[in-house]
Recover the amino acids of this structure.
């Protein structure tokens, strides 16, 4: 049934349809509406016997999820930004132990400077933590991915992170088809754990492992992610057959068939990119879009297959490895090893900077004309940067950078235009 | 695609108004996308919310910089924020005020747009009468339905019914209906003047 609904609410209801048994979370923007809505559903008794556990921090949230999952419960939590960093040690433990927890990350920048707005720095900081990372392009996909995530996590016994753009998706009210409970029940069987803490059949989980077997445990985790490369598209196909819409999967292409230039991206910017590509196509430019929906495992073969017919590849990403450049780009380059493709990295939308169709069109026109540099920061205010550099060259005590830039702008409080 | 920008202050229901408008359009079978200007919202601080309406899926995620419709919930913003920025020449403007455009010091601005698409509504007064609280959001949507015909009053009433219950819903429906009638009369009066 179609509903006009806030993204956070849609995700909360999708999680509820998956019949979670333990939900634990600590509030942090922009994830808060999701767990608030789930807390209300638990309190109203509509999720019984699910327990909602208020915790004192994100570290505790993930620790409780680990305990609940180890005891055989279907466990869910959500976080963002510094919250994800604060739980990082437990995040690695969840995957190291092979516990199928599902977590929403409402993507938000990481400070300092403190910033509540959207980019992908938080998820990307945990890309090597052993969790599967799925990225939603819109709220329908965000809702659907949670249902697919529980299925995938429990089949493989490994945790799944569903990443959705903070505010841009979590706070957007749009049309979402919410499935019926019976349909979800038919798609997602009850959780059958591979390992469980059961007083009647005691085991220990979490042994110390020395050099004699640590490599093997790690290798097995990688082998499981490799298996996920097969299961993710299969589960997406099964979902499509049952629910009548295609969401999830490893990658999805848009107008790439004869494209000479393909722009690669993750998350909600794919929508704006598709509109931009439609306009550029009308102007005769052969451009297309490749959306990556599974970032971990990274679908090297699927990315290579989608890009090998192109002449140029632009990776547009909301993340940035200081001192190197792109994060996603590095992985895309690996997928393109040996192919003579012209590649550019465009860092965009950091800290909530709006990514506009006009800027994307300008950037893509530059790319098509081979005027785009190897590393570009979309809509960077070069004058602002130069003014600060000059200040630093002139005086030793140039003061705090963030405060200086805000003073130059005459901004009293931060805002997004 | 129709793009609506709503300006107001934190606590006035700006985000709720954008959401209600999207629900009204959804109920009429269209696609709609409502979203706030994401920030740490504080009571009284200038707030902007957006709504896109289309007959097909809306994929665009940028803030609305060239609106077709401008709704201003708080007239004290008029000389603080450039609310008219980017408004299309054919655009609609609805301002919550007892005063007209000239009295608000907007005579020059108003002459850049189509006169029959500009209207002020005493939405706060109407809201106070029906709700006992100065919440002009739903009221202005009733006015917008009359001004543009781009959503129907029935759609707005539907949306109110989805969001509110009991007395609050009834009060908002009555207030939106009064604003709808008010704007209808204003447009008629304007048409009469233009005919003379």
């Amino acid at each position: 049934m179609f509903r006009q609904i806030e993204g956070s609410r849609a995700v909360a209801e999708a999680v509820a349809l998956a019949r979670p048994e333990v939900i634990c979370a600590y509030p942090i923007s922009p994830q808060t509406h999701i767990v608030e809505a789930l807390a209300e559903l638990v309190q109203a008794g509509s999720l019984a016997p699910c327990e909602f556990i208020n915790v004192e921090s994100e570290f505790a949230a993930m620790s409780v999820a680990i305990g609940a999952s180890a005891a055989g419960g279907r466990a869910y939590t959500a976080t963002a930004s510094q919250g994800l960093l604060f739980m990082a040690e437990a995040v690695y433990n969840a995957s190291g132990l092979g516990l199928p927890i599902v977590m929403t990350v409402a993507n938000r920048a990481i400070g300092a400077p403190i910033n509540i707005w959207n980019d992908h720095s938080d998820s990307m900081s945990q890309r090597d933590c052993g969790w599967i990372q799925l990225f939603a392009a819109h709220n329908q996909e965000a809702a659907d991915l949670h249902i697919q995530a529980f299925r995938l996590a429990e089949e493989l016994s490994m945790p799944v992170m569903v990443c959705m753009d903070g505010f841009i998706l979590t706070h957007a009210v749009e049309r979402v088809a919410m499935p019926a409970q019976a349909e979800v029940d038919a798609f997602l069987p009850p959780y059958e754990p591979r390992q469980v803490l059961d007083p009647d059949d005691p085991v220990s989980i979490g042994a110390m492992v020395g050099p004699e077997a640590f490599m093997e445990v790690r290798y097995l985790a990688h082998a499981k992610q490799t298996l996920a490369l097969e299961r993710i598209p299969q589960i997406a196909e099964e979902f499509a057959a049952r629910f009548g819409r295609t969401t999830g999967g490893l990658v999805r292409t848009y107008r790439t068939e004869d494209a000479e230039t393909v722009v690669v991206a993750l998350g909600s910017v794919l929508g704006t990119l598709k509109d931009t590509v439609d306009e550029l196509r009308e102007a005769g430019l052969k451009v297309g879009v490749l959306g990556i929906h599974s970032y971990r495992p990274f679908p090297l073969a699927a990315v290579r297959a989608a890009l090998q017919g192109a002449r140029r590849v632009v990776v547009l990403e909301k993340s940035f490895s200081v001192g190197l450049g792109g994060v996603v780009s590095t992985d895309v380059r690996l997928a393109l090893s040996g192919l003579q493709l012209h590649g550019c990295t465009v860092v965009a939308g950091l800290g909530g900077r709006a990514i506009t169709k006009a800027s994307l069109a300008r950037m893509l026109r530059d790319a098509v004309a081979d005027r785009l540099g190897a590393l570009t920061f979309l809509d960077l205010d070069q004058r602002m940067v130069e003014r600060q550099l000059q200040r630093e060259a002139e005086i030793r005590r140039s003061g705090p950078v963030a405060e200086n830039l805000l003073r130059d702008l005459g901004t009293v409080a931060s805002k997004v235009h | 695609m129709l793009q609506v920008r709503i300006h107001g202050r934190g606590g006035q229901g700006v985000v709720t108004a954008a959401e209600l408008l999207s629900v009204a359009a959804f109920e009429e079978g269209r696609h709609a996308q409502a979203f706030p200007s994401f920030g740490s919202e504080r009571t009284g601080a200038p707030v902007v919310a957006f709504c896109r309406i289309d007959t097909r899926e809306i994929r665009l995620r940028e803030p609305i910089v060239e609106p077709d419709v401008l709704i201003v919930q708080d007239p004290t913003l008029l000389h603080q924020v450039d609310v008219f920025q980017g408004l299309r020449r054919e655009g609609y403007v609805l301002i919550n005020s007892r005063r007209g455009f000239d009295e608000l010091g907007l005579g020059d601005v108003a002459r850049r747009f189509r006169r029959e698409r500009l209207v002020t509504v005493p939405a706060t007064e109407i809201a106070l009468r029906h709700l006992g609280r100065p919440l002009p959001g739903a009221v202005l949507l009733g006015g917008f339905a009359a001004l543009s015909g781009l959503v129907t009053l029935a759609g707005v009433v539907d949306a109110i019914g989805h969001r509110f219950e009991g007395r609050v819903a009834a009060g908002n429906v009555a207030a939106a209906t009064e604003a709808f009638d008010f704007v209808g009369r204003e447009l008629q009066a304007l048409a009469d003047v233009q005919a003379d």
The interface with chain A takes residues 18-19, 22-23, 26-27, 31-40, 45, 58-63, 65 of chain B (CB under 8 Å). The mean pLDDT of chain B is 94. The radius of gyration of chain B is 15 Å. Chain B has one domain: 2-195.
